[in-house]
């Protein structure tokens, strides 16, 4: 039953990949589930993870580890089927690369099992679309230089989000020469408050960029860059291009990411007069134990209670929330001691967004 549970969890991720525009990964994971039930090499590679919690994202770890094999030249037959490595993907035969995928897992089982020990870290750049919108909302109300702090920052790429460019029909914000362009940022027209704030704040002053992560990635190291690229699905070139731009930007714009948990990180933060202190995070709450998150909320409340017109505070989050039977990924902004306001929703990768009336 444990192995069957694992196969079912992988099938659920296959459906999610299909919904999020990766027919290649969807097809491969369907075959992985079958291979597990048949006691194939994927079952051997994933042995010990049969009862892993959903938050361990074992399907994403497997996809990332095998993608890394293709990216590093260790699985050339598989690379021939991955667009990310110059290969060809046939949408009429989405599982054409399955024999090469299975062979790579069988031949590189030790590599895959080592990769499985690392938590998945996408550091998805597209989610900055929502974070930027939240930041523009915050400075609209508290027009001060920003101290930016990110929880679960991974490689810290989104700590440079003020250097990104967001565009959609009738809307653009950010420098025209940015290495990272988040195109088709909004489904239809962006909300009026965002267009107004973007016009009033064409650039932002960020005086401090710091984040935390239990296992941060160095985006400037070869291993760190490989890990980030491996977690981009190989048939999604737009996401890969945004990541490449963010890596180039990271080499120019410094940001610190401390190897510490979210609650301990927040304990060391104090508001400073003449600045707006912003704490933000995107799709990381599910990886934090409930007891630690209770501490995070207490620290956020402390910062909110200390806020004033001279020393502002904003909490910006893009996280899933259950609405009825569905999980919706929502941008929520809390200014000072006010209640959080849901301003927009988007797919998990952040593009496109659509407004929610505040």
Number of helices: 13
Report the helical percentage. Answer: 25-40%
Strand content: 15-25%
Q: What is the oligomeric state here?
A: single chain
Q: Which sheet architecture does the biggest sheet show?
A: 8 strands, mixed
Structure, described:
This protein is α/β, with parallel strands linked by helices and 358 residues long. It is built from 13 helices and eleven strands. The chain has helices spanning 2-19, 23-37, 41-45, 58-71, 76-79, 98-107, 109-115, 128-141, 192-200, 222-230, 237-252, 262-267, 290-305; strands at 146-151, 165-168, 171-173, 181-182, 206-212, 256-258, 275-282, 311-323, 326-335, 341-346, 353-355. The strands form two sheets. The protein has an eight-stranded mixed β-sheet with strand order 6-5-1-7-8-9-10-11, sandwiched between helices. Helix 1 (2-19) runs antiparallel to helix 2 (23-37) and helix 4 packs across helix 7. It is globular and about 65 Å long. The chain starts with a helix and ends with a strand. The mean pLDDT is 96.
List keywords for this structure.
358 residues, alpha/beta, three-stranded mixed beta sheet, 13 helices, 40% helix, 18% strand, globular
Secondary structure topology:
Elements lengths: L1 H18 L3 H15 L3 H5 L12 H14 L4 H4 L18 H10 L1 H7 L12 H14 L4 E6 L13 E4 L2 E3 L7 E2 L9 H9 L5 E7 L9 H9 L6 H16 L3 E3 L3 H6 L7 E8 L7 H16 L5 E13 L2 E10 L5 E6 L6 E3 L3
Parallel strand pairs: 1-5, 1-7, 2-4, 5-6, 7-8
Antiparallel strand pairs: 2-3, 8-9, 9-10, 10-11
Give a short summary of the structure.
The chain has 358 residues and is α/β, with parallel strands linked by helices. It has helices spanning 2-19, 23-37, 41-45, 58-71, 76-79, 98-107, 109-115, 128-141, 192-200, 222-230, 237-252, 262-267, 290-305, and strands at residues 146-151, 165-168, 171-173, 181-182, 206-212, 256-258, 275-282, 311-323, 326-335, 341-346, 353-355. Helix 1 (2-19) packs antiparallel against helix 2, helix 4 (58-71) packs across helix 7 and helix 4 crosses helix 10 (222-230).
């Amino acid at each position: 039953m444990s192995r069957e549970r694992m196969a079912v969890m992988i099938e659920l991720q296959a459906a999610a990949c299909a919904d999020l525009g990766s027919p290649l990964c969807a097809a491969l994971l369907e075959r992985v589930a079958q291979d597990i039930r048949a006691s194939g090499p994927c079952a051997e590679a994933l042995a010990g993870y049969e009862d892993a919690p959903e938050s361990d994202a074992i399907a994403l770890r497997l996809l990332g580890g095998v993608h890394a094999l293709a990216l590093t030249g260790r699985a050339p037959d598989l690379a021939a089927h991955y667009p990310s490595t110059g290969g060809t993907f046939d949408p009429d035969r989405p599982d054409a690369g399955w024999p090469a995928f299975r062979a790579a897992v069988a031949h590189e089982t030790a590599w895959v099992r080592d990769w499985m020990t690392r938590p998945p870290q996408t550091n998805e750049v597209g989610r900055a679309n929502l974070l930027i919108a939240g930041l523009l909302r915050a400075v609209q109300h508290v027009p001060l230089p920003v101290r930016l702090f990110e929880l679960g920052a991974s490689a810290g790429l989104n700590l440079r989000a003020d250097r990104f460019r967001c565009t959609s029909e009738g809307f653009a914000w950010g420098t025209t020469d940015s290495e990272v362009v988040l195109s088709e940022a909004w489904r239809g027209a962006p909300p009026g408050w965002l267009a107004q704030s973007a016009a009033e704040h064409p650039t932002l002053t960020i005086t401090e960029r710091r984040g935390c992560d239990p296992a941060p990635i160095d985006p400037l190291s070869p291993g760190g860059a490989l890990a980030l690229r491996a977690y981009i699905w190989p048939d999604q070139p737009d996401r890969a291009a945004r990541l490449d731009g963010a890596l180039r930007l990271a080499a120019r714009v410094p940001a610190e990411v401390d190897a510490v948990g979210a609650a301990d990180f927040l304990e060391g933060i104090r508001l400073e007069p003449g600045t707006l202190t912003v704490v933000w995070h995107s799709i990381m709450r599910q990886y934090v134990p409930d007891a630690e998150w209770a501490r995070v909320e207490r620290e956020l409340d402390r910062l909110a209670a200390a806020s004033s017109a001279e020393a502002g505070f904003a909490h910006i989050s893009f996280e899933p929330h259950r609405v009825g039977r569905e999980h919706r990924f929502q941008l929520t902004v809390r200014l000072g001691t006010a209640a959080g306001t849901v301003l927009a929703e988007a797919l998990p990768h952040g593009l496109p967004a659509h407004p929610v009336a505040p």
